[in-house]
Amino acid sequence: MSKNVKWFTVLIPTFYFLIPLILNFNYDSSFLRIKLIELYINCIPITLCVIFLIKKAIVNNFYKLVVLNAFIVYLCSLHQIVTFIPVWYWRSPGISSTTPLINLVPFKTILESEITQLIAPLLLLIPIAFALMSLSILKSKKKTIMVTMLISIGIELIQFIENSTGTGSAFEIYSRLTNIDDVILNTLGGVIGVYIYHFIRKGQSERLQISN
Would you say 100 and 163 are in contact if contact means Cβ atoms under 8 Å apart? Predict the structure, then answer.
């Protein structure tokens, strides 16, 4: 497989962010200006991140190409859900800052929540850890888990800033919690992702030995 094939993946963020703009197109100049600014603010950082990941990724077969494309779609979706910056909401009248909720006590919300409420933060970053190792972007278990934890902390900080400015309400998440327990669960998800990778790799190695 050609090494250059993986670079077509860089088109995913552009299409991902352009499609909603096209579907909700409005000829109003003010709408277009705000939406284009919103597109640049959200698309450019993700695209730069994608370029970095593609450069680091080792894609030498079709399986890894599928993993890379799925990973980039996942990153765009993750950004849309948890860190998207809604520029249009800053321009809405009557928007004021809210007092963000914060929990810095480890395991407090974990012990108080139902199991079903813990599933989402546990699963959220599993694909990141799995893809980072599958594509040989990171080869160390410890580094992969550490990066997953740092990503989780970054997400919580961005959500804190959005809630502080009132933009978190754009997603109808009026009581989003900046939560140390989410970091714990996300990091645990990273551990799970790492071991899923090693489980699949072990299975592939065993099948290869049998076929030989």
Answer: yes
**pLDDT by residue (tens digit) across 44-72?**
999 999 999 999 999 999 999 999 999 99
CA distance 126 to 110: 18
CA distance 12 to 7: 10
Tokens of 151: 């990503």
Bridge partners for 101 per DSSP: 177
Largest CA distance in the chain: 69
Residue type, 72: I
CB atoms near residue 135 (< 10 Å): 20
Predicted model pTM: 0.85
The sign of the torsion formed by the CA atoms of 106, 108, 111, 113 equals negative
pLDDT digits (tens, 9 = 90+) for 165-189: 655 544 444 445 789 999 999 999 9
Say which residues have a Cβ less than 8 Å from residue 81's Cβ, sequence separation at least 6.
none
- Are the C-beta atoms of residues 176 and 163 closer than 8 Å to each other? yes
- DSSP annotation of 2 reads -
